[in-house]
């Protein structure tokens, strides 16, 4: 078997992803991102409006100057966040997939928004490089149950350090893995469940005291 044979499945997957992306627009981009990085995308289908409403419900928008999102995908949460964010607020979306980062920076022209190519582990550096001392709220759709060992713990610890007192780390997941990780840093964790989502998901809010 040659090297070209070994690379054939990957090339075929990329071609399929590009074709689907062209045909289906936003949904195609999301599907292509899932094909390319399945372990880093929580679901093949974007979150429902019910999940978005319930997840963002506890946010005190008047006190939100910096909102950070991990794993924004095609921006399912980005536009609702921008609709509520104050005029002097800012939204930073962090993703390891350049496909999603490029797509978001092209379609979202709001000056309060920036998509950054990087890891949630580096959120402290990302926030400070943007000129902020802290974040008010951090939202994550990352699939913590499938992240490599130690990565989830480092993300949660960095998230806790960069949040302001009274701020929250918010996560929507299909498992409770992130709640178990959050317990090491967050004394108060609220939880809920959203049935009207594909698949139904668990919601968590870790509050920094």
TrEMBL record:
InterPro entries: Methyltransf_25, SAM-dependent_MTases_sf
Residue ranges annotated for the Methyltransferase domain, each copy included: 68-167
Signal peptide per UniProt: none
GO biological process, one term: methylation
Pfam short name (any one): Methyltransf_25
GO molecular function, one term: methyltransferase activity
Top-level taxonomic group: Bacteria
Keywords assigned: Methyltransferase, Transferase
Name recorded for this polypeptide: Methyltransferase domain-containing protein
Organism, scientific name: Parerythrobacter jejuensis
């Amino acid at each position: 078997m040659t090297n070209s044979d070994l690379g054939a499945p990957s090339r075929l997957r990329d071609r399929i992803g590009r074709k689907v992306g062209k045909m289906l627009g936003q949904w195609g981009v999301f599907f292509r991102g899932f094909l390319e990085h399945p372990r880093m995308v929580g679901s093949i289908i974007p979150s429902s409006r019910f999940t978005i409403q319930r997840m963002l419900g506890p946010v005190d928008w008047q006190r939100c100057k910096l909102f950070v999102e991990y794993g924004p995908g095609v921006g399912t949460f980005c536009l609702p966040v921008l609709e509520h964010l104050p005029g002097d607020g800012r939204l930073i979306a962090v993703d390891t997939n350049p496909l999603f980062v490029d797509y978001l920076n092209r379609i979202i022209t709001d000056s309060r928004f920036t998509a950054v190519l990087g890891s949630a582990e580096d959120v402290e550096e990302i926030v400070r490089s943007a000129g902020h001392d802290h974040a008010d709220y951090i939202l994550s759709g990352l699939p913590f149950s499938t992240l490599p060992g130690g990565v989830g713990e480092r993300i949660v610890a960095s998230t806790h350090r960069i949040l302001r007192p009274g701020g929250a780390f918010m996560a929507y997941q299909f498992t409770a893995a992130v709640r178990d990780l959050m317990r090491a840093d967050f004394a108060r964790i609220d939880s809920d469940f959203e049935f009207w989502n594909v698949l139904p998901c668990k919601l968590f809010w870790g509050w920094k005291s």
